[in-house]
Design goal:
Elements lengths: L6 E4 L3 E6 L13 H5 L2 E6 L16 H14 L5 E6 L1 H12 L4 E7 L10 H17 L4 H15 L5 H4 L5 E7 L6 H10 L4 E5 L5 H4 L1 H13 L1
Parallel strand pairs: 2-3, 2-4, 4-5, 5-6, 6-7
Antiparallel strand pairs: 1-3
Amino acid sequence: MDIEHFYIEKGTGEPLILLHGNGADSGYFRGQIDAFAGQYHVYAVDTRGHGRTPRGGMPFTIRQFAEDLLGFMDEHQIEKAHLLGFSDGANIAMVFAVRHPGRVNRLILNGANLNSSGVKRRIQIPIELGYRIAKCFSGKSDEARRNAEMLGLMVNEPDVTPSELAGIRAQTLVIAGTRDMIKEAHTRLIAESIPDARLVFVKGDHFIANRNPAEFNRAVLDFLQS
């Protein structure tokens, strides 16, 4: 491991790791940490190059972040954990569950996508334009290089096929907003591709955990305790 993760830790019980989205940090889950810490040992982790976790020298990819998560679990002697990921965090959790099925207890994918085609075009087009511009200037400033890396995650990643999801062994909840930036058909495809996955839509946009925490938390806890 070439980095030391920043993380928030709270509660006791089975480990539950929270993974935030692109450009955010563990603070995204302020509406979840206390709610889940009553029954679980919660770790809200800042991904490589996000929040207070350094960028390090390894590739800036979803697959690298999944390997970083493995390193974090090994370092904290977490043999098996529930994983709850949002957006890019869901993509990290999804890739991790494919690669390391024995390390995942239950899996919660909130606003995941297999590739950029899963994102509604009106959202994705500005991201792709921003990525091209940032890439052009990435040699000229650190900020442009960082922007290009962040936007590149949303343009080129995670590049997972539906058939790969068939290898997920964890009981899975796929959860998204009723007005999510991820196409509903794409969310349904993810749920259909994971054996026996449960699918839930919560009223709201992509940021349901943040903006509708009561309903989101209830759906997650119902799933974890079922």
